[in-house]
Structures are given as structure tokens and as C-alpha cells.
Amino acid sequence: MTDEKLSPSIGFPEQTDESGDLAMRLEFLELTADDATRLRSFQPVFDRHAVEYLDAFYRHLAMFEETSRFLEDPALVERLKLAQREFFDAMLQARWDEDFLCQRRRAGEAHAEKGIEPKDFLGSYNQFVQFCLANSSKDISPDTLLVISTLMKAVFLDVGLTLDAYFEQLTRDLRQALELYWAANNELKQFAHFTSHDLKTPLGTVANYCDEVLDEFEDQLPKDARQLIEAARATVFRMSGTIDELLSTALATETADPDDEIAVGKVIDQAIERVQPLLEREQIDVIVNEPLPTVLANHVQLREVFYNLLANAAKFIDKSPGRIVIEAELSPASCIVSVVDNGPGISREDQSKIFAPFRRLSRNRDDSGSGLGLYFSRNLVEQQGGQLWVESEPGRGSRFRVQLKRPAGNVESAG
């Protein structure tokens, strides 16, 4: 008997986009009316061995941690077995219609929603095929090869429909996540505006007080007191400028590649100047090993990164004398600038935790700070196409490494 191609409209009273897609799949896989008959002929075989097959399959799933976590409830396992039997029954019944299409879509969406990855549910198809191959030679003859060929085509039809629905569901989830992200981003921008205003208002008040003191009492002030007030006023203006720069940077397009050629040495000098009071109080020396490269980066963001790294190192160094070394490793396309300290070091287990927001190590719980410095630093570096990570061992200090892009045509060397 010659196989007859299924009509594109078989099973579809009205041709829809989805039914048209299914008809195209049937034609592409060469699934015919004779194939449908062969699949149905295998139904009695599956019925006789279904319980045995499903028990064996779920024992197999229970052997793997990623799937066994879904199978802790015995009642749920029984419901899953029933659902899977109905799923494969529908495949063997070969009713390629709207109901079949909807069932496959629901299966794919359910796998995506529950976090069951393709490698896991494709395993069920594999087990089913192995079961069919093992039983076809005993129960079907002489058309065994035709049945197996038909079965493989039906499996690929199922896999295609299920995977399509799976990835469509993931796409919807991603779209929703992006919408939430952009909503949160807009809220963050508004927060940045309000926060900058709230920060700059008291700074302006402090600057005015400094000016009034100098205007009213300058002649009565000792020279050292006048110098301290002038230094405080200069610090206030510098802080105000820093807030403006940070706000401008935060509102800039984050996806744009950095194209400014920045001298790392200049940025680090500015970061050291900001952290100098802490360095002096803790008696920590900073050693800058030349040469330091020119990189493609955002000046303000990069300065904040190195300020955070220096302040973080100075805050936790537990030895006297304290020491921070800044050095660079150069390659034609990139460089790695390291901030190395002789502090207490960080265990391998804790190295990933320190970059999480609001996370501090147990030994630092009572220290001041927001717990956001390293989190923001890593984000700022990644926005510039770089990476930030730490290499450390307890008792042997820490090395924070910042990898950045370099301009084309570099002639600098590591020296």
C-alpha cells in the first residue's frame, strides 16, 4: 500500500495560523495516514507495558537531584504518571488536530513555568523510544521497521511542538522581567533625583555656615581654625560636584560602550586623595607601581570603583603597617589593574558573597557602611565592558582585579 500524504486541513474545520503550522510540520516530517494507522497499532503494546514503563521511568528520574526534587510527594508522582500516560496515548492515537496541538503547547508551557529544562523532559522521550524499541520486536511483525520509523517521526513532531511552546513561555517571562526592570529603572532615576536634592540641600547649608563664620569672625579666628573651615567648605563643594557627576552618570545610557580614553593613573590619584583621611588615620601606605595604562572607560564611574576598592581595603586591613599596592598587567586589547592589600583575606566560600548587595561577612557585621560598595563597583565595571573579581586566601590578603578595555593601537608595555 502506498502511503498517502495527510491533507493540510485534516482535523481542522477552519484553517488557523497554528493549525497551518501543524499541517506544515506533518508534511515536512512526511507523516501520512498510513503512519497514523501504524501508530495506533502500537497502542495495545503500550497498554500492556505502560505501568511497567512508567514505574521504571520515575525510578530513573528519582536518581537525579535536579528531577527528584519534583517527586517528593507520592500522590503527585501518581498524578504525573497518569498525565504522562495520557500524553503518550495521544501520540499513539495520532489525532493531529487542535486538541492535540493545545495539549502539546500546555505541556511545553508547564515545563517552562515549573523550571523543568529541555534536557529533563527530552529524557522522557528517550525512555519512551527505548521502551518501544525493546517491545516492538516481540509484539509487532513483519512491519516493525515501518512502525519504528513512524514512531520516530511522531516523537520529533511532539518534541518540536513542545519545545516551541517552552521557549515561547520563556520569552514571555523574559519580556515581563524586562518590563519590570524598566519600570524599576525609571523609579530608580526618580529616586536618584530626589536623593541628590536631599543630599545637596544640607551640603549647601554647611557651605553657607562656613561662609558666614569666615565673614563674621575671620579676624577673631586663629589661623589653624580658619584653614580648617576653608578645608571644610572646599570638601562640601567637592562633595556637591561628586553628587552631580554621579547623578549624571546614573542617568546616562548604560548600554552604550565607553569611548573615553582615560588615564588610570590620574583616576587613581583622585581616588587616593578622597580616601587619604582614612589612610592617614589607619596608617596605611599606598604604593602605585608604574606604568598605569590608558583605558576606555567613564571617568566618574572608574574613579568611584577605585575609591570603593581603596576604602574597602583600608577599612579592613588588620596589620600594622598596612599596605595597599596598585599595579597593572597589560595586553594589547585589555589590562588588569589590581588593588592588593595585606588584610585578613577572604575565604573561597565568602568571595562570591561580598559582591551581593547589603551582604557583609560575619566578622564585619558591626562595621559602618551600607554594604553596597563592592556591589556597585562590579556593576560600574561591567557597564564599561569589564570585569571585577577577587583573589584571596585567609591570612594572606586580597587582590581585587579590574579588567578594562584599552584603546586600539596601544604602545604601552608592562615595563
CATH topology of the largest domain: Globin-like
CATH class of the largest domain: Mainly Alpha
Q: How many domains? A: 2
Q: Could you give the order of strands across the largest sheet? A: 2-4-5-7-6
The low-pLDDT segments are 1-16, 253-257
Give the distance, in angstroms, between the N- and C-terminal Cα atoms: 81 Å
Features:
Heat Shock Protein 90; 415 residues; 5-stranded mixed β-sheet; two-stranded antiparallel ribbon; alpha+beta; Globin-like
Describe the structure.
- The chain has 415 residues and is α+β, with helices and mostly antiparallel strands.
- It has two domains: 251 residues, Globins (Globin-like); 145 residues, Histidine kinase-like ATPase, C-terminal domain (Heat Shock Protein 90, 2-Layer Sandwich), CATH 3.30.565.
- It contains 13 helices and seven strands.
- Strands 2-4-5-7-6 form a five-stranded mixed β-sheet. A two-stranded antiparallel ribbon has the order 1-3.
- Helix 2 packs across helix 8 and helix 8 packs antiparallel against helix 9.
- The longest helix has 74 residues.
- The protein starts with 16 loop residues before the first helix and ends in a 10-residue tail after the last strand.
- The N terminus is likely disordered.
